[in-house]
Amino acid sequence: MKSAWFRYLPLVLLAVAWEAVARLELVSTSALPPLSEVAVSWIDLVRTGELVGNTGASLYRATTGLLLAIVVGTALGIGMAWWKPINVLLSPLVESFYPLPKSALIPVTVIWLGFGNGSKILLIFMGCMIPVTIGAFNGARSSEQTLVWSARSMGANRLRMLWDVVLPSAMPELLNGIRTALALSFILLVSSELIVAREGLGHLIGFLGANGSYDAMYAVVMTVSFLGFAADRGYQMLVNRMLRWREQTP
Amino acid sequence: MARTDAVMPDHAALLEAPAPSLARTLMWGFARVFSIVALIAAWEGLARSGQFTPFVLPSLSSVIERIWTDAISGDLAINTGLTVYRALVGFFISMVVGILIGVAMSRNVIANWFFDPIVSVGFPMPKIAFLPVVILWLGVYDVAKITIIVIDAIFPVIAATLIAIRGVERELIWSARNLGANDRELMWQIVLPAAAPQILTGLQVALPLSMIVAVVAEMLMGGYGLGGAMMTASRFADSRGVFAGIVEIAIVGYVLIKAMSVLRRRLLIWHQEAQEPTTT
Predict the structure, then answer these.
(1) What is the ipTM, given to two decimal places?
(2) Do B257 and A99 touch (CB under 8 A)?
(3) CATH top-level class for B59-275?
(4) Most distant CA pair in chain B, distance
(5) Residue B89: which pLDDT band, with cuts at 50, 70 and 90?
(6) pTM of the prediction?
(7) Which of A4, A25, A47, B8 is buried most deeply by CB count within 10 Å?
(8) What is the end-to-end Cα distance of chain A in Å, rounded?
């Protein structure tokens, strides 16, 4: 009934308003360069290779940190749900680190690993691990007892059960936790690169801003926002595909 | 996604041991603090063993000493107060404006048409990237810091309010209408209370986010505040100051989040979830 064009019209209107406000010089053009000039500097940045190189550096950090967090976090969460001693040992630690505003770790990771890739990967790993752990724990703990019992009565050993019963039934909550971690990884990546880095998109934003090339700065800010948005949408499509085996509940 | 933990309490009750003895309670109590104590001991032990330089890992005792000096000189109170003030003001603005926008979107077609694409595109964006833009527009003082906090924290509140109000049972609204409730009464006495649990969940996402962004904004913009103090310490290679900052920020974050979950239990005392055991 309503087309996608009508649905996204407000965003188009905002873009037109941006262009108009800047062209009519209602605000100073250094504070808000026209959208068309931002687009032109975006193309320039791509052509010189600056944008591509820095995007590569940022994505490498985010992916590595996030993958580590997913692997370790899932293992810890399922371990905590499956063996009581692990739960007793780890849950107080998870509980006390969960509320820590993760951005406070930025200077510490710099002290430990310097200004390069290592400190960003460590930061993203430490920040994203806890949401994944909590998702895996809640998911694995709520796996239906009847499923576990019937698998056991059919002679499945503990390892087999973990893989065939507990992991699949933990999946929805685990995937939710990973989505939180994905959003958090972008926040931590950009803020740590803004504060201390020699390359990466956050660094590029700070660098261009300090040089006064605001149209290019806006171009990079829009790029980062788009990447974050695209990552979330792509992830959701992946999740829908992975959870297709579940019966659809309204 | 279907919530499966609604069935959890029964399982928990099934598996729980009958009345625990005193020795058992003591043992579990000890086990609960064991790992925290072990972590603290490991930190102190590693720092004293000489494996690491005091720059990489200052001992916990020297960090506590540092916090104590800051507390006596009054810096700690100023920095903590400012950080909490910024985070909470940003949080409250996000709460009020976010709930208003969510309510407007659920009641008004035009508001929904305008805000819906903005929320669905804006929510997953890393809005912290706009920090340099905010600095460009508003400078580096409290207004800029609080603005970036609001930009980040408002989206979870809008989304939660919207989902919560759309999920209110039709039967409730029909019955209230039948009993003669007008729009205003319907909103305040039926819709908002019924939507409260999910709105509070959105607020529980927004609060830690406010703290994260407050710390980043202070680190980047400088000035007083816990994040700013950490950054100053890091510039002067004063690693005791950095670790003191972590401990202080961790404690502030812990207290805020615990306060929020206590508040949730208080506000939802009438709701069935308050009778269930908590999961975290």
Answers:
(1) 0.85
(2) yes
(3) mainly alpha
(4) 76
(5) very high
(6) 0.85
(7) B8
(8) 23
